[in-house]
Amino acid sequence: MRVLIVGCGYVGLPLGEELTRQGHQVWGMRRTDNGRTQLERAGITPLIADITDFPALSGLPANYDWVVNCVSASGGGLEEYQRVYLQGTRYLLRWLESAPLKKFVYTSSTSVYAQTDGSAVDENSPTEPEADTARVLVATERVLLEASRHGFPAVVLRLAGIYGPGRGYWFKRFLQGNAAIEGKAERILNMIHRHDAAGAISAALSRGQPGTIYNVADDEPTTQRALFEFLAEMFACPLPSSAPSDEGAVFNRGVTNKRVLNRRLHDELGYQFKYPSFRQGFASVLD
Q1: Which of 44, 180, 253, 270 is the most buried (most CB within 10 A)?
Q2: This prediction's pTM
Q3: DSSP secondary structure string for all residues of the chain
């Protein structure tokens, strides 16, 4: 297959490496020329373009079999989310409308689930987030799902918090000594290792059904306390100090508390995790 990975960065790079090993031709799109050598060493052909610039995008050939959109807003605010995710996706659809595309995979986020009561959520659960940025992700999903009803082969993956070498919010805060146990630390965290995120995308390209949403989270959602206890034992150091839970701050940041179910990923895509829980995943990061 001829495969284009849009936003070929933290997750896109290992995805491209794996697809190349499988014998596919892979192109990796980035906004700048940074990392060209890294892509070429992985067997990925670099492509410099910005999906928020439609005139430039439309000047490129669009003859791909599979396209993955795993762009990142790089921690930007609402305006950046709207520009990169929503407008960028609309531009990609326009660009690809004449291409004989077999599969289009978009990486969304489990932040679209706003549940705060620790309940379990699957792909049919309500998506009514409080955070404006998460609402943009929901809107982007709807654009693609509507397109799929008219024949566009879009698949949506909702990724949990990504971690791995050089990345991982809670892991980095713990190592830096900036972590704190919030209240009773009972809030549930959902995570996915970088390589399993890439593996799930690969499975969706091969077996995902257009118009379908798949949760991509590992097999062991964990509480904040359990995660810190694991890290404290691993590093033979005390637990972080306690801090009062600030409900107002939690609400304003759109922080949620839910258990993300991944049954569809297992049953329909047949995906088996390399790191089924944070325990194996963090151990691999240390190695």
Answers
A1: 44
A2: 0.94
A3: -EEEEES-STTHHHHHHHHHHTT-EEEEEESSSTTHHHHHHTTPEEEE--TT-HHHHHTS----SEEEE----TT--HHHHIIIIIIHHHHHHHHHTTS--SEEEEEEEGGG----S--EE-TTS----SSHHHHHHHHHHHHHHHHHTTT--EEEEEE-EEEBTTB-HHHHHHHHT---EETT---EE-EEEHHHHHHHHHHHHHHPPTT-EEEE--S--EEHHHHHHHHHHHHT-PPPPEE---HHHHHHHT----EE--HHHHHHH----SS-SHHHHHHHHH-
